[in-house]
Amino acid sequence: MDEQSSKKNRAMNEDEKQQQLDRYRIQNKGKPMTTKQLLKVSNDEEILKAGVRGPGLLEDFYFQEKMGHFNREEIPERVVHARGYSAYGEFECYQSMRHVTKAGFLQEAGKKTPLTIRFSTVQGPKGSYDTARDLRCQAVKFYTEEGNYDLTTIAMPVFIVQDPMKFPDVMHAYQSKQDDDIPTATGAHDRFWDYVANNPESIHMVMWIMSPRGILRSYRMMESWSINTYLFINEEGTATFVRFVWKPVLGVHSLLQDEALKIGGLDPDYHRKDLRKAINYGAYPEYELGVQLIPMEDEFKYDFDILDPAKFWPEELIPVHIIGKMTLNRNIENYFTESEQVAFNPANVVPGIGFSNDPVLQGRLFAYRDTQHHRLGSANYDELPINRPLCPFHNNTRRGYMRQRIDIDQINYHRNSLANNTPYTTPPEEGGYAHYPKKVEGYVTRRQSESFKDFFTQPRIFWNSLTPVEKQHTIEGFSYQLGKVKSRSVRQQNVDLLVNVDKELATIVAENIGVNPPEGTHVPVSTSYPSLSQANTPRYAYTQTVGVVVGDGFPSHEVKHVLDTFKKYGIFAVIISETLGTVTSADGTALKVDETFITMSPYLVDSLYVVGGRGKNERNFKYHLQQFIRVAFEHYKPIGVASTATREMEALGIHDSPGVVYATKSSNFSEEFVAAIAEQRFWNRT
Questions:
Q1: Residue ranges of the alpha helices (H) in 13-142?
Q2: How far apart are CA 281 and CA 284, in angstroms?
Q3: Is 399 left (phi over 0), alpha (psi -120 to 50) or beta?
Q4: Which of 20, 199, 268, 291 is most buried when burial is the number of CB atoms within 10 A of its CB?
Q5: Using one digit for the tens of pLDDT, what is the confidence trace for 321-372?
Q6: Residues 553, 78: Cα–Cα separation, whole Å
Q7: pTM, 2 dp
Q8: What is the tens place of the pLDDT at every residue in 632-676?
């Protein structure tokens, strides 16, 4: 299924970048084994020895090549964002943005630009798990006609530091300890929360991470923001402040904390598999690109500093203009070359996009290229196929590790007569990049703007904007993470910090983690914004995963109708039973089983269709059936009950309850169940 879908995707979605990459793709299947020098190999199982029981020989060049390469197969992993995954797609511009930017890929409605994307967590190493409570990155490399443009965003609109000088410190505090390299992929430890307590600017992002936003259901349901403030620059040289946001078409949805922790053990690759599956099935993930624009003259119009990366731009004050859509339509075929070696850098811009004085952005313009030089081993990493732009590039750089270009010019310096001073520079009016001439004044200093120092107003607004359910889940997030902190002093300090955001929040957390109630109260702010709550996000049944728990003797006509309805709405159905093979209906119809009770878990499905029936081991079958029902019910998931399974629900004491749909009580069961699947959670269930 995967191979066929992959071939179909390749046929449907060829673009200029894929055609370029095809020159580097190698198919080894059906070919003779050779050395790197094309010498055919006759034995790939034994080293060359002096006699069958003798020592190995130094002349075994093939073993040296094979083992020597193996010894060097790994490269340094990313210091942050080590665990990630990639896909390909395209961006389609909805409307011309030429009034604010001269960026070529935003000039015409309908213009399409190929791209690659990498999703990632921050704290854990490559071998950690997908569902950790963490902030996540979504980095997009647009292969434009003017060169590569990299747009890096994260799943919160605010950052944890306000100055890049502090980034190494927060990461040192966030990551595992030096003595035991524990814990993995979590901030639930003393060092991180000690940092938070003593750096109050961090409480804003921490509020977002402790909320449901910190444990995403899927990369396909991830909203992400640029955080940093950039500039759009048009042909007239007029600049506009801009922030970017990707809005998933499927809406923004999250796991419960209990689910995220269990899935981390059950299926560490949960998000990766989810992304690949959707693309393979042709259910291409879609994200609309929005921009928030502020004229240069309005820089000081708001009661927050628009250059502060620890502050969001409220959509209710600064509207989001949707300008295009990204569609992910092709999976990667080689993780190392297409995801591990992809290198992003916010300094990779095109004419029409520039930089503000946002201090974190200024630091990132150095950090990204520097870390790629180290990680990929050469300044020539731009020549790797995944990083190579579509348009040819010409300059006077030469040599270095792993240089791939064969530059045949003998003149490699600027200002020359022998090559008529080529490669030549291009004036801005002809497409050359020029930095926006920002006015700069003031004394050289290491001080921070006073306008950055309101640490609690926006976290308070975020808290005010959450629903009671979201607030409860945020309390659980704080209670779990701080409950793992051994130092009572650190726990107390965080409660004393948290009271500035909300008195009730801090008091409940204090009781849960065994410290004194905080003194004081929160900042006097009552503002709230609907855009900050996931309660207002779109909801669809499309691509939701439904576990169909079924045994022998099931009603074939009823089940077939429901499965056909699932297919009609693009719902993924997983048939779960006692053993692999098939289950047989009352009239002899066979149904292929996808997963067993051993290989599948109720935590890995979004909804449950309880069909019931008979098992080979009736006691074992009933036990697992009831376990699936309990978990789905306790996690507020939709449950559809076939006519053969009503007794199972009654045995568990579940009767009429929100989101539980009975075939025996509905004249249009399949459609009603689909509507429940679209709702996704039923928080009013008791």
A1: 16-22, 61-71
A2: 8
A3: left
A4: 291
A5: 999 999 999 999 999 999 999 999 999 999 999 999 999 999 999 999 999 9
A6: 53
A7: 0.94
A8: 999 999 999 999 999 999 999 998 999 999 999 999 999 999 999
